[in-house]
Amino acid sequence: MILWYFFWWAALGLTMPYVPVFLKGLGFTYTQIGQLSALSALAGFLTQNFIGGWSDRLGRRRPFIFAGSLVAATVFFLFPYFRSYEAFVVLFTLSGLGMYTALTTSSALVLDLSPPEGAAGSFARVRIWGTLGFIAMMILGWAVPAVLSSYLFRVVPLVYLIAGATILFVREPVHHEGRGAGGKLWDGLKLLGRPGVPMLLLVVAVLHGSLQAVSASLVLWLNSLGAESRIVHLCFIVSGLVEIPFMLSMGKWSDRYGRRPLLAITAVALPIRLLLYSWIVNPWWAPAVQTMHGLTFGVLAVVPMAYMNDVTPEDQRAAGQGLLNAVMAGAVALGPLVMGILTDWFGFSLMYRLFALAAGSAGLMLFLFLRESNPHAAPAETALPPRVRPYTRPVAVLFDRSPLYRGKALRIAEGSEDDALVKLP
């Protein structure tokens, strides 16, 4: 799984700086390029409930991951042979279907292979290899941009094929084989009736959508400030380097102290990050703000998966991850779209402030309504030195649990349809 994540995200690191430029060179407008990106995410949004349930019903993950890798390789191999917008509508739709299918089932497989009490930490230790692959390709693109761009649509399919080949060497857990009668194709939608799931999805959708607005606007915003290309590359490299230690530490901390406190930290950090962007006038300050990527993306890449895993029965694990990935795909589609509209109307500074307000609203919903999902979590104040605990206890308790559900955490028994409430230690 480590090799799959490395090569999968390495391919993404190869395409991210070049594909928009390639499409612009074909004569597409910025609006058309944005629409193609939204179509890719929309394909993931519409299909992942079905894909997750199908994976659970078959009790298999590897065929879906391999198929998604093969589809991605085929799509990028075909890129140079088409010129029309209609053709790229089809290619981007297929790309979204393949990519989100692979991401949904790969998350489920990593969680299958992880111990229940350390799911977030295990997922983080695997996921950081994706970031390492992404950073490696960003550095390569910085070093030899001309060579890489010349052979891009031959290298990228090869990297996706290598990723697909690595998954063939992963052995799925025995208890996930031969469970053909386990789940239904639309089990992901049924999970919306479970306590904690709707609020998790709402909070993650708003936070992730706000974060995607940052990703989509970063290059345009830096160009508007007159930034050189090396500053743009530096921002991506800094954010990648910072997220690695945060993924590792946040995964372990969420296993020890709970999912809710970590999500609460992100809900506080993301509005601050967005406000800082709105106040910057010198592009050289941007890499400094990018150091907050660990507290925002570093948490959102790991902790929501672990939360969903906590509240989902084992035989519906991929359905749960599919539902989560569908919501995140919807955020990927809507965040940049709303960003473009707000930027056209109000400019970058006010756009960032409005997204900061949206992220702050998600934080308020989290503090009031989102319950802890990890029944083994220790109180958040135990992470602090004993001498300062009496002074931080009111804030720590707020991070620990909702005032509306004081002293309780959600827990879904393995393979059970029933919900049980257990007190936190």
What does this structure look like?
This protein has 425 residues and is an all-alpha fold. It has a single domain (2-176, 189-423), classed as Growth Hormone, Chain: A. It is built from 18 helices and 2 strands. It has helices spanning 2-15, 19-25, 30-58, 62-78, 85-112, 119-143, 145-150, 152-167, 187-190, 197-224, 229-257, 259-279, 286-290, 293-300, 303-310, 317-346, 348-369, 389-400, and strands at 408-412, 419-423. It has a two-stranded antiparallel ribbon. A hairpin with a 6-residue loop joins strand 1 and strand 2 (419-423). Helix 6 packs antiparallel against helix 11. It is globular, with a radius of gyration of 21 Å. The two termini are 34 Å apart. The model is unreliable at 175-183 and 411-425 (pLDDT under 50).
SSE succession? HHHHHHHHHHHHHHHHHHEE
Main sheet properties = 2 strands, antiparallel
CATH architecture annotation: Up-down Bundle
Low-confidence stretches: 175-183, 411-425
Strand content: under 5%
Q: CATH class, please?
A: Mainly Alpha
**Structural class based on helices, strands and sheet pairing:** mainly alpha
Indicate how many domains the architecture comprises: 1
What is the name of the CATH topology?
Growth Hormone, Chain: A
Provide the spatial order of strands within the biggest beta sheet.
Answer: 1-2
Short précis:
This protein has 425 residues and is mainly α. The chain has 18 helices and two strands.
Task: Sum up the structure in keywords.
mainly alpha; about 0% strand; about 425 residues; Growth Hormone, Chain: A; two-stranded antiparallel ribbon; globular; single chain
